[in-house]
Structures are given as structure tokens and as C-alpha cells.
Amino acid sequence: MPGHIFGRSTRGSLPIAAAGEGCYILDAEGRRYLDGSGGAAVSCLGHSNEAVRAALHDQLDRLAFAHTGFFTSEPAERLADRLAAAAPEGIERVYLVSGGSEAVEAALKLARQYFMEVGQPGRHRVIARRQSYHGNTLGALAAGGNEWRRAQFAPLLVETSHVSPCYEYRGRAEDESLEAYGLRVADELDAEIRRLGPETVMAFVAEPVVGATAGAVPAVPGYLKRIREICDRHGVLLILDEVMCGMGRTGHLFACAEDGVAPDMITIAKGLGAGYQPIGALLVQGRIYDAIAAGSGFFQHGHTYMGHAMAAAAANAVLDEIEGRDLLSAVRRQGARLEALLHERLGQHPHVGDIRGRGLFRGIELVADRETKEPFDPARKLHARIKAEAFAGGLICYPMGGTLDGVRGDHILLAPPFIISDTELEELVDKLSGALDRAL
Ligand code: PLP
User: Fold this and answer.
1) Position in ligand 1 atom list of the atom nearest CA 99
2) Same domain, 91 and 224
3) Could you tell me if 281 and 356 lie in one domain?
4) Ligand 1: which residues within 6 Å by Cβ?
5) What ipTM describes this predicted complex?
6) 66-76 pLDDT, tens per residue?
7) Does residue 43 sit in the same domain as residue 96?
8) 91 and 168: one domain?
9) Residue 173: its pLDDT value, please?
10) Which residue range(s) make up the domain with 240?
């Protein structure tokens, strides 16, 4: 079909997604695809969820949109109250936007404005990690460490320091305990803040479980706690980006709860609207909001569609489903099942180097040699072949290639809907292992 739309690739054409049924998407030709990655960790409730559809119809019949310069709305107020109540200690305020990049941009600007308002105008630098993705808009792209995404836009990006990620598979020395490794890499942040001058640093940004750049890499125990201590020591704000790993994906509504850490700000999106509406949120410690309330009284930021009533109604319905159907327990249960299946089917595979993740957020790192951990030649574009083979076989998964902290490699990200059944999990792993073998 000739068309004028353009999106990611200018080559080839894509099937038309025509309908959704639970964990499956159907194309216009009637082919069924098992959604093993929720697109990119979005569709946590699967497709065509009845309760969310009903909530959206209901909101549409009352009000779709009222500009936040004039009004607030009942669904937006309710959503903010619920998120603040469920969030880690001290998080009291919620800023609603339309997606993950917008949430990260808002976090960076709020951090800067906060320091202006509390009389520390010298603080403007951001430190992040080499293994990270925080969005494609210019501020968020500058924070992220994904070289492939950044390279050609480098002249447009504000300078950001990047320290080591917490990437046990390749980073931990053989004779080093998990904890010692976590503390060692966390301490790089301390050194970098001292090098830059603490009075110039405003924020450290990190994903508690790294998503798209590396395939579900969780921090080792103790790492985030040490990061929190370092930020406190130097008066630097800790921004945790849970756009991918938040909203229940790891089996906890907020991934950082498992690490026992309360950040200054949290960004969420993706699973918040579960694909039913585009929505993201920035969650903020009360004292940050209070500083602005006591100062200028105005956060100098904003988007036309922020606090959108339909989007908030969808997110409320998603939360209702997560709570009402106890989907966090389902994520923990089915996550453990998926992990076991992956180990059973792929654990001994000669080209599977690592299987990792939390809950229904799992990653597989592929290597040419398991002993040396040598990656495949990037020219083979293995990740692209796996994606194509899986798709042809009726499975949506999220393979990526790129720099895995200094090493170019391939990984596969899995993030199926929280409602996935035992049989569907088996189908997922079956189709994935077939695709892997055909692609190799
Ligand atoms: N932050 C993280 C951790 C992400 O994974 C993503 C998207 O993949 C973003 C931010 C950007 O979100 P969006 O694509 O909704 O702008």
C-alpha cells in the first residue's frame, strides 16, 4: 500500500495491526503475533482490555480535554493521589505528561529550577551511566549513554558525564563479591562528583533495571543504596528513570522499592497507560515542590497535552486492573516461571551468555563464545535477524544490538503482558528459541 506516513525505517513496509486479543496482536491479513515484549514494555495488560476500554468510553462521554492552564480534572487528580500514595517515601507530587522522554525532560528542568530557587545556581551538571537510555528528545538524549542514538546529534547535546553502569555480567571481577562489585561501581559516582565539583552537579540519573540498551540489567544488591548515600553526601538529586522498569514490570509497582531506595524524582510512562493512552509522569519529593511553591510559585515548563483527562482515565483504569486482579503477584509468579523456562530451554545454549532480569522483565545476552564472553561481530546484525525470524514466526520480542558498556553486542529483551498464561509463556520461549536457531 503506498503511503505518506513515515516512522522509523524508510525501507520495507510493515503489516497493518488491525486488532488485539489479550497477549496477541492480529494483522490485517489475520496473522497472530504473540506480544512477548509489550512492544517496548508498554502493553502490560495485553490488548483490548475491557475495563480500560469501558473507562475510556466513560471519560470520553464526559470530557476529553481541558487545558491545564485553566482546569484540573477529576481523573488527573485521582491518578496523582494514587501514584503519590503508592510511591516510595517522601514522593508527594506528580506532574503528568505524555510519555517517557517528556517525563525525563521535566525532571531535568525541575532539578535545575529547584537549585535556582534554593540559591545554588552553580548546579547544572548531570551525571548518568554509559549503559542507559532516557529518551530521544535532546535533554533526555544528552543524559542517555547510548552511543548509537547519540552520535550524529552530539553537537546538539549538552555535555553529560557518564560513569560505569552496574553490569555484573561483564563488570564484576571473578574474585569479587556481588556486593563489593556494586560498591566499587557506585563509588565511581562519588569520584566523578568530586572531579566536577559538587557545587556544579545537580543530578544523577539512572534506570534501576536497565532496559533497552542492555536487556533487563538489574542493579546488584546494595548498589542503589550506596548511590543514594553518595547523592546525599554531595547534595545531588537522584532521579530514577522507571519509564521501562516501573509500573509493576519487576513485580513491584516501583522497581526501586525492591532496592529499598527512595529517590528525589521518579519518571514513569509506558506501562502507566499500558498503550491505551500516551501518558507519562514525573513523581517528585515534597520538599522539591515546596521549594518552588515557596519561591517563584511557577514551574517554568509545560506541554499542551499534560494532565490529559483521557490519558489519566486510562492510567486509573490500568491501576484498577493491577490492584483488583493482583497483577503484581502474577508478575512475580509468571516472571519466575519465565526465568525457569529460559534457563531450561536456553541456559546451556552455546550462544547464550547471560539470562537476567526481574519479574516479567527479562534479558538474554548473546555471545559468540560463552567462555570468553566474546560478542558476535556487529556486522552480522544478529539482533535484527532474530527480530525478523521471531516476527515471521508470530512472536514480537525486542532484540537490540549496540554498545554494552564498551563491548558491542546483542541482547533480547522480553516484557510480556502481566496476564500471560503458562501456555503462552511456553509458546513465547518455544518461538524465541526457534527464531534464535534460525537466525544464528
Ligand atoms: N526512559 C527509559 C528508561 C526508556 O526505556 C524510554 C523508552 O524506551 C524512555 C525513557 C523514553 O520514553 P518515550 O519513548 O515514551 O519517550
Assistant:
1) 15
2) yes
3) no
4) 40, 99-101, 104, 133-135, 207, 211-212, 241, 243-244, 269
5) 0.99
6) 999 999 999 99
7) no
8) yes
9) 97
10) 54-324
